[in-house]
Amino acid sequence: MKHLIALLALTLSVLTPAHATEVAGVKLDPSLTIQGESLNYYGAGIRSKYFMKLYVGSLYAQQAGLDADGILASDKITAVRLNILSGMITSERMIDTIEEGFDTATDGNVAPLRERLDRFMAVFDAPVEVGDQFTMVSIPGVGLEAYKNGQLLTLVEGDDFRHALFAIWLGNKPADKKLKAAMLGE
Asked: Does the keyword Ion transport apply (predicted)?
C-alpha cells in the first residue's frame, strides 16, 4: 500500500507543473534577466472586472519564498509584468487605475509622489492595445524602470515611488486580492 501511495504521489507531481507557463493564452517566461540579474517567476493571474479578462499580471523576483511584504521590502530587483488582454484597457483607463492605486497605496497622501507619478504616467501616452506588455522593474536604492513591449520608457527615482506602485498589486489593499494571491504563487 505504501508503494501505491508513493507511486500515486510521484505521478501527480510529474503531471502537475510547479509553475504555470501560460495564463489566458499569454506565455510566461520562467525567468527574466534584468540589469544582469536573473529574476524567477513567482506566479501570475488574471485581472478581471465584470467577468471580462483585462490583463495577466505576473511577478518575478530574485529571492524565492517571500510573501507580499517581503517582496515590497526586498533589497533585490523585482518586476511586475502586465500583458493586456482586452480592448477595454485604454491609456485613459490605465492612468485612472494607477491614480486610484496610488491613492490607496499611500492612504490618500499622493502629494509627495505627484511629480514623479505624472512622469510615470507618460508610459501610457501612446495608445494601449491588446497584446501590449508593460514591465515595471523595482530597483532598490534607485527607483523604478518602466518598459512597454521591451522598450525602456522611463526611470522614476525613489524607493517610496517603487513601493507605492508595487503596492497596487501586492499591498494590504490590492486592486484585486485574487490576482495578488496568484502573482505570489498561492
From this structure: no
